[in-house]
Amino acid sequence: MSPTxxxxxxxAPGLTSTDLAPVPPASRTWGTGNYAALWISxxxxxxxxxxxxxxxxxxxxxxxxLLTIFxxxxxxxxxxxxxxxxGAQYGIPFPVFARASFGVRGANVPALLRAIIACGWFGIQxxxxxxxxxxxxxxxxxTLGSLPAVFPASWALATGPALVFLLFWALNMYVVYLGVExxxxxxxFKAFFLPIAALALLWWAIGAGHGLGPILAQPxxxxxxxxxxxxxxxxxxxxxxFWATLSLNIPDxxxxxxxxxxxxxxxxxxxPASMTLFSFVGVVVTSATLVIYGHTIWDPxxxxxxxxxxxxxxxxxxxxxxxxLATNIAxxxxxxxxxxxxxSPTRISFKTGGYITGVLxxxxxxxxxxxxxxxxxxxxxxxxxxxxxxxxxxxxADYYVLRKQQLxxxxxxxxxxxxxxxxGVNSAALAALVVGILPNVPGFLTAIGALDKGAVWPGLVxxxxxxxxxxxxxxxxxxxxxxxxxxxx
Length: 489
Fold this sequence. Notes:
Helix content is about 70%, strand content about 0%. The chain is an all-alpha fold. The longest helix has about 35 residues.
């Protein structure tokens, strides 16, 4: 199938739209610089900072944390490039690419799983922005910090932060109502502000911490090598999980590439490097807080609230909220909104999909996910990597091993074609997905406290530390075994 081949048969209703149709070669304008800029922009966000600082809080020293982040991002770069190749070759987005392996209807399963994870990220970013505004507001209206509790104690949600969080959430929903174009200027603001703010924070940490020497001299907190490895492997899985969502839907971006080399080189140069460099700020600043305050502060919003100047804190928190708003709409609303719309194009518009994303983002209780480093890494990042790893394994095995990188693009938009399987669903892919997820379920249930560790075989608990890797390999292998027993489509 030629990459320039277009859909010749009439696409089936519900399987195509302006957003889902292949991008014609003349409209593919993204070069190496565009992909490098994309990853630099996406890496410069508060969760990246918290990713690094959580490793310091968890017990690593500076070089152990940076090495873990670099390794994780180098590993996730591999499926990123492999899946991205199909987008650049055929100009198709992720939900359409998934139809080759899951079926034209079955592709809604991986698309919706990915969308739900994006909803969680939307909630986390909204909480970060809302809490930044709360830290600013409570300086000027101290009574916000002493409002009576209205939520159940189990929610661990104070009234003041909740009110400001909901207001910031409503602002996000208003932007969805206005349309994505309204956020363009904020994205430009973020691109200029966050690098400057990161350098300013780094400068402050080095000065207040009496130079890099005392900061980087902070030793590892692990008492033995066994304790270190017990923390390292799930942390590495969490680093892979950080971009596991994008490793699936990267065709949404590479479909605009001028060439394979452009998207491959741009991503390879920018992803591991930008994540590691920005993480260095988080590592140094978090290590400096131990020198300055006597204990580590891993949340930059909490740290900024400790500055003495009300005006400085207010400006910093407003800037964090605005840059978070820009990142949230661009990274965590557009993709899931399109996925929900793809599920039922005639009933769910982009705006409706955005509203669904917003509601689910609140229901996931994001303030609990980032309340402490262990929850952020072991519950959130590792947990969802166990869902997305199997999807990646199936898609890559299908495209590279079974189909030898050859797709029939018109058939991806037809209910009666080689990707129709049975009623539009490839049962082999769904079975492989379930088999790949199951080994990680006991460990996840113990991580969230639903099961006591003593009630689960220790080997199954340990499997969870490698959730993404286990799911990727198991599902990919099972899928190949099941497909080779089926007649060729």
